[in-house]
Amino acid sequence: MSIDDLPPLRQVIASHGLAARKSLGQNFLLDLNLTAKIARQAGDLSECDVLEIGPGPGGLTRGLLSEGARRILAVEKDARCLPALDEIARAAPGRLQVINADALELDPLAHLTPPIRVVANLPYNVGTELLIRWLTPPAWPPFWQSLTLMFQREVADRIVAQPGGKAYGRLAVLAQWRCDARIVMTLPPEAFTPPPKISSAVVHLKALPAPRFDADQKTLEMVVARAFNQRRKMLRAALKGLAPDIEDRLIAAGIKPTDRAETVGLEQFCALARQMKK
Fold first, then answer.
1. How far apart are CA 168 and CA 57, in angstroms?
2. Could you give the CA distance from residue 143 to residue 145 in angstroms, rounded to a whole number?
3. Which stretches of the chain drop beneath a pLDDT of 70?
4. What integer pLDDT is reported at residue 24 of this predicted model?
5. Closest Cα to residue 213, out of 270, 160, 135?
């Protein structure tokens, strides 16, 4: 049996009793044309290992294999999905390893060989946390070359947002500091089973060799978190607990003390992080 000989996903779901569970953030994408299109957004995978989180019944997994992924590590928390994924593994000998685990607790590097790309229709309930972990490793460059990830549309908008809008915040700063980030696909609710209440989008993040601007990671994270935690306040008030001379440090970073976080660009936040590090 080959990948093309596998039964339709609706049949797989019915035969294995794989009704999506809200508690696991599951919304299955069953259109194999769409899953192949998502896989293509990750680029040429023929010489890469791919990390996939939350494969479910394996729609995107099939797309990644069909598009030539060298090898896939699929991490699935829901044990009900394992028989369906095992059928895919048998149709692609040596190219798919499935691990029944919580992605938040697993170190995937023991099972992957660089170069590595991450491609996933992330479960909604862990997507943002996983992204932040991938963006903030102890050392840079990270273990991955790129992330091609599906999120709720509002989360995708936050990743690529520019200063001046409500979507701009901590996620945009952390993502754009170390990556080129862009939305490459949007999907309506009816593309999924069951349909979520809002649209989804695929974001492609390519790791930069080095951050765009010099800054200590922990200091930048602290400053940005504090600034956006009270985003309606002027920065001199939102950051007053960080240093007694915070106004002087803001001015030295080229930021007006009366500015609010959503108006401050990435380069300025990095400059402020350098001032705080002093």
1. 34
2. 7
3. 1
4. 74
5. 270
User: H helices within 169-264, ranges in order?
Assistant: 170-178, 217-229, 235-238, 246-252
Residue-range definition of the domain harbouring residue 236:
217-277
Does 233 lie in the same domain as 179?
no
Domain count, the chain: 2
CB atoms closer than 10 angstroms to residue 277 = 13
Residue 73, SS3?
strand
Single-letter amino acid code for the residue at 108: P
Pair of tokens at residue 154: 């509002």
In the chain the first and final C-alpha atoms are separated, in Å, by 62
Q: What is the pLDDT of residue 1?
A: 67
Give the per-residue pLDDT at 186: 97
Whether residues 233 and 181 share a domain: the answer is no
The CATH number given to whatever domain includes residue 111 is 3.40.50.150
Q: Are residues 266 and 184 in the same domain?
A: no
Q: Are 15 and 53 in contact (CB under 8 A)?
A: no
